[in-house]
Amino acid sequence: MTKHEFYVDMTCEGCSGAVTRVLNKLDVKFDIDLPNKKVFIESDKDANVLLETLKKTGKTARTGIRCSRCDGEDVLCQPVLWLRVVLHGTTGWRSYI
Fold it and tell me: What is the domain-level CATH number for residue 7?
């Protein structure tokens, strides 16, 4: 099974309860990290299916990865792979879709 990470704008136990209700209908394994507003799902279902299910809670839901460009921010990167590139003594970030 693939482990997926989502950001869901949960602010209380009611919000996490809504996430629990919609995910229980999919019969997937999941863990909710309410303080960090994250939901971890283990499933072979497509990430878009999982994301659309999370959006049924009425909360903002996003998928993506954290990178060093996002440290300290309360959002996740768009689903883009960021690679640190070292060329001829210079460093920089390059985006690859």
Answer: 3.30.70.100
Share of the chain above pLDDT 90, in %: 55
Confidence of residue 65 (pLDDT cuts 50, 70, 90): low
Please spell the DSSP secondary structure of 20-33, one letter per residue.
Answer: HHHHHTTT-EEEEE
**Rounded Cα distance, 93 and 96, in Å:** 10
DSSP string covering 57-92: TSS-EEE----GGGTT-SS---S-EEEEEEETTEEE
Number of folded domains in the chain? 1
Distances (CA, A) of 71 to 48, 67, 76: 25, 7, 9
Provide the residue range defining the domain that includes 6: 2-96
Q: Is the pLDDT of residue 68 over 60?
A: no
Residue with tokens 């996740």: 76
Has residue 10 got a pLDDT over 90? yes
